[in-house]
Automatic annotation (TrEMBL):
Chief location: membrane
Organism, scientific name: Lacrimispora saccharolytica (strain ATCC 35040 / DSM 2544 / NRCC 2533 / WM1) (Clostridium saccharolyticum)
Catalyzed chemical reaction(s): Cu(+)(in) + ATP + H2O = Cu(+)(out) + ADP + phosphate + H(+)
Signal sequence, start to end: none
GO cellular component, one term: plasma membrane
EC number(s) given by UniProt: 7.2.2.8
InterPro entries xref list: ATPase_P-typ_cyto_dom_N, ATPase_P-typ_P_site, ATPase_P-typ_TM_dom_sf, ATPase_P-typ_transduc_dom_A_sf, ATPase_P-type_domA, HAD-like_sf, HAD_sf, Heavy-metal-associated_CS
Enzyme class: translocase
Protein name listed in UniProt: Copper-exporting P-type ATPase
Pfam family, one: HMA
Amino acid sequence: MESQILNIRGMTCAACAQRIEKTVRKLSGISQASVNLASEKLFVEYDSSTLELSAIKAAVAKIGYEVVEKSENANVTIPIGGMTCAACAKRVEKAVGKLDGVINTSVNFATEKATVAYDPQKIRMSAIRAAIEKAGYKALEVNKADAADEDRARKQREIKTLWTKFIVSAVFSVPLLYIAMAPMIKFINLPFPAGIAPMEYPLIYALVELLLVAPVIGVGYKFYTIGFKALLQRSPNMDSLIAIGTTAAVFYSIYNMFQIADGHFMAVDALYFETAGVIITLILLGKSLEAVSKGRTSEAIKKLMGLAPKTAMIVEDGVEKEIPIDEVEIGDMILVKPGEKIPVDGTVLGGHTAIDESMLTGESMPVDKKEGDQVYAASLNTTGTIRFRAEKIGSDTALAQIIKLVEDAQGSKAPIAQMADIVSGYFVPVVCVIALLSGIAWYIGTAGDLKFALTIFISVLVIACPCALGLATPTAIMVGTGKGAENGILIKGGEALETAHKINTIVFDKTGTITEGKPTVTDVLTTEGLSKELLLQLTASAEKGSEHPLGQAIVHGAEDAGLTLLAAEHFESLTGRGIEAKINGEDILAGNRKLMAERDISLTGMEEASDHLAGEGKTPMYVAINGNLAGIVAVADVVKESSRAAIEQLHKMGIEVAMITGDNKRTAEAIAKQVGIDRVLSEVLPQDKSDEVRKLQAEGRKVAMVGDGINDAPALAQADIGIAIGSGTDVAMESADIVLMRSDLMDVPTAIHLSKQTIRNIKQNLFWAFGYNVIGIPIAAGLLHLLFNGPLLNPIFAAAAMSLSSVSVLTNALRLKRFKPTTGTR
């Protein structure tokens, strides 16, 4: 299976998004298709062996929408110094144009810039610059726009175009509305041009209105081209509603204009030009405000994209050279000075510094880096100069993976959105039917009053708002997941975001989650005839081959004590129990009580000491030599500062907290007592952790598992929500639904709180969207007039309400940007 994100243009409402989804899902080989109206993206998963991406693009294009292709080629603008005439420009053009990999070159002498389109797979930017230098001119600093800048520029152009259309529309529709309404307001003597008085010069009055409405219809032409095309293809959208309503108003008005010309002067009261003009103006205003708000919902992605530096300083043959970030290759040696950003991921080769990784982990304190340490793209070098080898570039960097996770999450749908999707699919056709039936019913009920019936028909069409339904969920998810990313919490999708707010039990892994995961040796107890140094030396020598944190702690303890480690003749790791090794001909067993019981080794004489150590929160490791108990090496893992505060916050939220560990019961209970754990699951083997989660689920609980995302992978996958704690290097862990970029457990209640706030926001949006349409459509259909002889809804007010409904949903979603992380130890 392969997944792709396609940029879609031409969508105007939820009906458009639904149509694209249905069309793509019908294709053979499609596993999943989801359209995000707010971000204008199609997220598709398909079997590439049976379906080509080009077929998906063709299916989308066939129903009238545009798939915006991402160019494989790069475009760059290079300022050039030293040109004195047009011949110079021609010379540069020729020098660059003949390079292999350059597709097109254009040099503008007036601006002194060269615009070059090239294939980055065939040629580096440095080669283009070198060709310019060789021709005798100076290639100045490159100004290359990245994807975030291009997207931002495109959005700004769209917003500017919409505002321009609105202003033009308003310039003509305001006087149109004035001359239409002023003669009707009898109680105020408003000034009015005598030459177009409706009662004296009805035909001139009608012609002036037609001339004023024409430019408005002109700037709103897309409502008609898109709306009627969708109608002809039997999948009407919001534009169809506007097109039908305003067209009916204009044609009815033109018909009455001919009636006036034919001598029926009273037909001047049945002109609807101002209705059409003002409706289009208000819709354009709504669309402009909507575009601005939609742009703000994706700010998190833009911020992340904007973090990466544009250039890198590489060292080749001892010479420093600055190149665009896109030209960095794996293996390049990169130099980073104080105050500069790390351009790509890699390993430090030389130098020492402190790096601010807050953009990745949210941790404000800089991290010391020396030879052999990892550095990550977009983090900030604060103090020293370092050289490092580029190991991950482009889409492989930790930052790029974070961006992809956030993009995928923003494109996903929460289960709560399903009802809105179903309604959206039928919404516009149903509204068209309601409008038509209402108009006919009132025409019959009023004995042929066409003006009355037309008012009802247009009002129903323009008050209906499928946009509000389509934007209710994705905008909140976009802002919520983006806000999470800003705080080091990566939520992988809408489903995870929704499920998190239902969690009532959280299971924490102990080592490395509740505790620091860096245990140290605290006690060494031996039987008679054996020194503590020898026991520690033998145990550490046996544990040298182990990767378990407790084993590594014993090794470090022996090294700190100045003991020489002996070579092991044999080593075997016994999962969940300990290790077995042969040192200098001696058979060494080191592990927990379960291992000793398996090998029938008596613990007599050490049980009381063991219980005492466990009661202090230390982990006693029994050591046996040649089948006889030799002593205990006790190791303690320090509890994180944030653990107690985080668990207190979870208790305040009404969530039960459990701890799962392979440690013995007494040790586990001692740690649990320190931090306020409700339930302890001790002496659990790694492979059995998922079973313990399953047992809790069988009790009817919604369970979240918090672990390191590697050893706890089965349990993370089994839980309703898997929460992985990571340092930012494993952001693409498949087993977890939520990834916490730092090791601060306060991010767990923050993630739950963010989920609750986002789902609450979605429910508010859906309530408003559904409520608006449920109340607005019957009122527009004349229900109040029928039941209470109340007023009719003027189509102009219907259009205003329709525009504001979408804006209100977006504005409500943007309130999530004020979300603050849960406070505790921070």
